[in-house]
Amino acid sequence: MPSAKRLSSGNWRVLAYVGKDKNGKRQYKSFTNADKKQAEFEAAEFLVKRKKENKAENLTFKAASDQYIQNKANLLSPSTLRGYRIMQNNAFPDVEKETIGKLAVNNSFQKQMNENAKKYAAKSLKNQLGFITAVMGYFNYHIDRITIKPREKKKILVPTKSDSVKIIMLLRTAPEIECQALLALSCSLRQSEIAALTPADISGNSVHVHGALVPNEKGELVYKPTNKSSAGTRTDTMPDYLAKRMEERCKGLNSTDYIFSLPPDAVLYRFKRLLKANGLPPYTVHSLRHCFAATLHAMHVPDKYIMEMGGWDTDSVMKDIYQYAFEDETQKVKKKANAYFDHIMQHEMQHKK
Predict the structure, then answer these.
(1) For position 16, what pLDDT does the model report?
(2) pTM of the predicted model, to two decimals?
(3) CB crowding 102-141: b at 16 or more within 10 Å, else e
C-alpha cells in the first residue's frame, strides 16, 4: 500500500497507481489531506474498491445476475426470485455473454430492450429494466440512459353487473371452485391469498387474510408470510351463503391444513372452462376481484373502505387499476345523459322558431 509524502504546503499526499495509458505511461490518482493517516486511508479504500470493480467488470451479465440473485435470495420473496430467474433465462439473450464492464459503456442494453419491445408488454419491459438496473448497481455501475416504450393503458375485462349474477349462479354447478371464486368476488381476495387459507383463518362470517402461497424458482408453491402489499393483512366479512360453504369445506380438516387442494392455476383453468361452456367472456378469477371494487364503487362506497376491504395500500393504485364502472350501467347513464341534452336541444330549437 503506498505511503504518504509531505508536500511543501504541509499537507500529505498519496499517489495510488491505477495502470498505464495507451502510450504505456504509468497513471496515478492523487489523495491529499492535512492528516497523513487520512490520506493513506482514502488511497487504500480507493484501491480496494477499484480491485473489486476491476474483478467485477469481467463478469458476464449472466454471471453477474447469478451473483445478484444468490446474494439477495434471503431478502426477496419467492415470487420475485422466480420472476428474476424467468427474466434471466429468457429476456437477455443478446447481452448475457457480454461483460458488465463493456455493458456499462456501450448501448447493448438499449438494443436488447428495443428487441424485447417487439414481444413484451410495457409492464414486462419495466420489470426487465428494473432487473438490469439492480444487477448493474450491485456492482457499482449505474445505468440510467435506457429508453423503453411507455406503459399502455390496457382495458381489463371486468364482469358486467348482469354477468356477475350469471357467474354466481353458474358457480353452484362447480363446487370444487365455488368458494375460491366467491372469495375473490365478494371479499376481494387474491388467488395466492385464497390458496393460503386454513381453517384457523375462518371464524363464523370472518376470514382472516395474512399470507399467500406463491411459486418459487422451481415453480413449487411455498408459503409467504406476508401479502403483496402492507395493507394485505386484514379481516373481511363473508356473505352468509359463502360463510356456510366455507364452514362445510373446513369440516374434517386440521386447523393448519390448507382448505383448498386445487392450486390457483387449476382453479383458473376450471373457471375459464365453466365460462366458455356457458357463453360468457374469458374473465379470470382476478377479474372477480376487479368486479368487487367496481361493485362497491357503483354503490358509492368511499374509496377508503374499498381500499381497506380489498387490501390496497394507496388510492392511486386502486383508482388506476380497479375503479371501473359496469359497462351495462354506463350505457344506461349515457342514454339518460343523451335524453337530457336532447330535451335542451329540442327546446332551444322550438324557442328559436
Answers:
(1) 86
(2) 0.66
(3) ebbeeebbeebbeebeeebeeebbebbbebbbebbebbeb
